[in-house]
Design goal:
Layout: E1 7-10, E2 14-20, E3 23-31, H1 35-48, E4 54-61, E5 67-71, H2 81-90, E6 96-103, H3 110-129, E7 131-144, H4 149-158, E8 162-168, E9 172-178, H5 180-194, E10 201-211
Antiparallel strand pairs: 1-7, 2-3, 3-6, 4-5, 4-6, 7-9, 7-10, 8-9
Helix pairs in contact: 2-3
Pfam families: DUF1949, Impact_N
Domain Impact N-terminal: 21-125
GO biological process, one term: regulation of translational initiation
């Protein structure tokens, strides 16, 4: 996995359950950056729900979907695993594995119903768990007078700028993380707001994971 690339993934391992026409669909997610980890997770969930009607799954490894695999696990061909993999790819999630466990409730869904059920299971689980963007950001500091604090806090919040610290001394010193491409616009906005040049100092850089607020989970 390249450390130089930004990508989307799930916030953390987690589960979400849907009841569709009396069938239980349990989607279990994990972050997996190797085929071995993905296969181990599939085995773990399949063992946990060994009494289920089906344990279908899909995974994608690598920033270019270098290794992918999907299994219908006994469901009609093309109605489960491939559907789950397509859902992952439409959401542009990387290095993830999803296992969707089904406990049959007695009502047949038909091929179209199964496709919708497995697709929704994946997207709803991703939505419940959360999606993050992993990005390389510069660590910056700048100071302002106390009487501008509310204004600057509002601006940073409205523009989703990651503030890691506020130090209250003679002035208020902000420490924040910003992508390279956003530094110049940020500096211009702050200069405009404060009616004067802002002394932005770069003190380092690191990869951060930013929780996304707006993701099209139902693009498919």
């Amino acid at each position: 996995m390249s450390e130089k690339e930004n990508f989307l993934t799930i916030k953390e391992a987690g589960q979400n359950e849907l009841i569709i026409k009396k069938s239980r669909f349990i989607a279990s997610f994990a972050r997996t950056d190797t085929k071995e980890k993905a296969e181990a997770f599939v085995k773990e969930i399949s063992k946990k729900y060994h009494d289920a009607t089906h344990n279908t799954y899909a995974y994608t490894i690598g920033l270019n979907d270098d290794q992918v695999k999907a299994s219908d696990n006994g469901e009609p061909q093309g109605t489960a695993g491939v559907v789950e993999l397509r859902a992952l790819q439409l959401m542009k999630l990387k290095n993830v594995t999803v296992v969707v466990t089904r406990y049959f409730g007695g009502i047949k869904l038909g091929a179209g119903g199964l496709i919708r059920a497995y697709s929704n299971s994946v997207t709803e689980a991703a939505k419940a768990i959360g999606v993050v963007k992993r990005v390389l950001q510069k660590e910056l500091t700048f100071s302002i007078a106390y009487n501008r604090l509310d204004e600057i806090n509002h601006y940073l919040e409205e523009n989703n700028v990651f503030v890691s610290n506020r130090e209250y001394g003679t002035d208020v010193t902000f420490t924040l993380f910003v992508e390279d491409k956003d530094i110049e616009p940020l500096e211009a906005d702050l200069t405009d707001l404060l009616k004067g040049k802002v002394d932005l100092k770069e003190i380092g850089q690191r990869y951060n994971e930013i929780l996304l607020k707006d993701v099209n989970y139902h693009e498919q």
